[in-house]
Amino acid sequence: MGHALIVEDDADSAKMMAALVGAHGFSAATARSLQDARRQMAMQQPDVVLLDLMLPDGNGMALLDEQDLIGNSEVVLVTGHASLETSIQALRYGATDYLIKPVSAKHLQSILSRVTRPSVLRAEVDHLLDDLRQSSCFGHLVGTSEPMRRVYEQIARVAGTSVTVLLAGESGTGKELVARTVHDLSRRRSRPFLAVNCGAISPNLIESEIFGHERGSFTGAERQHLGFFERAHGGTLFLDEVTEMSPALQVKLLRVLESGTFMRVGSTTPQETDVRVVAATNRDPDEAVSSGALRRDLFYRLNVFPIDMPPLRERQEDLPLLVQHFLQEMGQREGALKHATPAALQRLAQYRWPGNVRELRNALQRAYVMTTGDEITDQWLPRDVLVEPAAAASRREMLEVQVGTPLAEVEKRVILATLEHFGHQKERTAAALGVSLKTLYNRLKEYGL
């Protein structure tokens, strides 16, 4: 049985929360002031502290500075309203989540169901750091370069909290793997992790897929459908290519992030959800805001904890580790281990990899299949891939656009010209444009191609 300490000066609120906590199998103690809270924690270390900010003898945040008392307790702030400032404040002071008054029984139940002492989470991070030294892996990620170590440090810092994370980086840099690692190190790891590529779902269906719909809400809706927010309840929802959402849908996403509620398509009944959102974009977030692809207010709400993913060309020292990792995976799956020769590694290192780690994996997969022995040489590594950057870039065609051309037309002309330049190789076209392959296919479908 876990033990909860409720630090709340309002007797009725404290009594109500104590009853809710007790109904979920926790013993509960209450404190009406900071002094009383210190006394209670000295007598019994709580597993979780529900901490009101406004107390008669000071601000509740003062307790978070007393690590000898509260350092091994999960802290949940209790506040009168949800805001971006609350999220940032919770992260800065080490709180893992926050509750909004009046306290939702469903939200409190979700928090209690995943109570984990900070020392347990710290031990898991330490274990991953040991793995990094031994196997060059950190969770789902591979690499020991300085740029990746900065990413690992940020993951370790944010995973134990509930704040929203925004991942920015080129296509193929491993943003979903970061999201999965954040989930696996969080208190939500026993709950679902769902990944949604917002650019791969038809604009006509994406709202229904994310928020769900009621039976009969539109033609073809023959039964009720639960969206990703409901299916991910208690867990983590990864929204990839979030800038591909329409402005109208971005407004609804903002509402969920701020209020924790949404409505299914065709319904007027609000649904509560407790989901940690990790969003990602392969565009520069500031440019996406300036161009109107991302609402400024949604950007501020998503950008509570930004993580920038380095492209593969900025972590070249990780290339041999990635090659070894992918070939080991392929060998275990296919039943025949193969390795890259020094000549193959040298040729791979000559390329800038616009498609990043994803493109590297695909190139190795082809070479693995075509190699009959156990040594992968440079024979089956694509020649055009290896020749590209400096020399080829100077030979690329130029595209002239008249001032005043609609942006949709500019985008179409750039996509088609790039596709033509790369000989209709869609994967290389998508990599050069900085979009996912699914997004490219969607655009070509719109153009009737």
UniProtKB/TrEMBL annotation:
<dbReference type="InterPro" id="IPR027417">
    <property type="entry name" value="P-loop_NTPase"/>
</dbReference>
<dbReference type="InterPro" id="IPR001789">
    <property type="entry name" value="Sig_transdc_resp-reg_receiver"/>
</dbReference>
<dbReference type="InterPro" id="IPR002078">
    <property type="entry name" value="Sigma_54_int"/>
</dbReference>
<dbReference type="Pfam" id="PF02954">
    <property type="entry name" value="HTH_8"/>
</dbReference>
<keyword id="KW-0238">DNA-binding</keyword>
<dbReference type="Pfam" id="PF25601">
    <property type="entry name" value="AAA_lid_14"/>
</dbReference>
<keyword id="KW-0597">Phosphoprotein</keyword>
<feature type="modified residue" description="4-aspartylphosphate">
    <location>
        <position position="52"/>
    </location>
</feature>
<keyword id="KW-0067">ATP-binding</keyword>
<feature type="domain" description="Sigma-54 factor interaction">
    <location>
        <begin position="141"/>
        <end position="369"/>
    </location>
</feature>
<dbReference type="InterPro" id="IPR003593">
    <property type="entry name" value="AAA+_ATPase"/>
</dbReference>
<dbReference type="GO" id="GO:0043565">
    <property type="term" value="F:sequence-specific DNA binding"/>
</dbReference>
<keyword id="KW-0805">Transcription regulation</keyword>
<feature type="domain" description="Response regulatory">
    <location>
        <begin position="3"/>
        <end position="116"/>
    </location>
</feature>
<dbReference type="InterPro" id="IPR011006">
    <property type="entry name" value="CheY-like_superfamily"/>
</dbReference>
<dbReference type="GO" id="GO:0005524">
    <property type="term" value="F:ATP binding"/>
</dbReference>
<dbReference type="InterPro" id="IPR058031">
    <property type="entry name" value="AAA_lid_NorR"/>
</dbReference>
<dbReference type="Pfam" id="PF00072">
    <property type="entry name" value="Response_reg"/>
</dbReference>
<dbReference type="InterPro" id="IPR002197">
    <property type="entry name" value="HTH_Fis"/>
</dbReference>
<keyword id="KW-0547">Nucleotide-binding</keyword>
<dbReference type="GO" id="GO:0006355">
    <property type="term" value="P:regulation of DNA-templated transcription"/>
</dbReference>
<keyword id="KW-0804">Transcription</keyword>
<dbReference type="Pfam" id="PF00158">
    <property type="entry name" value="Sigma54_activat"/>
</dbReference>
<dbReference type="InterPro" id="IPR025944">
    <property type="entry name" value="Sigma_54_int_dom_CS"/>
</dbReference>
<dbReference type="GO" id="GO:0000160">
    <property type="term" value="P:phosphorelay signal transduction system"/>
</dbReference>
<dbReference type="InterPro" id="IPR009057">
    <property type="entry name" value="Homeodomain-like_sf"/>
</dbReference>
<dbReference type="InterPro" id="IPR025943">
    <property type="entry name" value="Sigma_54_int_dom_ATP-bd_2"/>
</dbReference>
<dbReference type="InterPro" id="IPR025662">
    <property type="entry name" value="Sigma_54_int_dom_ATP-bd_1"/>
</dbReference>
<protein>
    <submittedName>
        <fullName>ATPase AAA</fullName>
    </submittedName>
</protein>
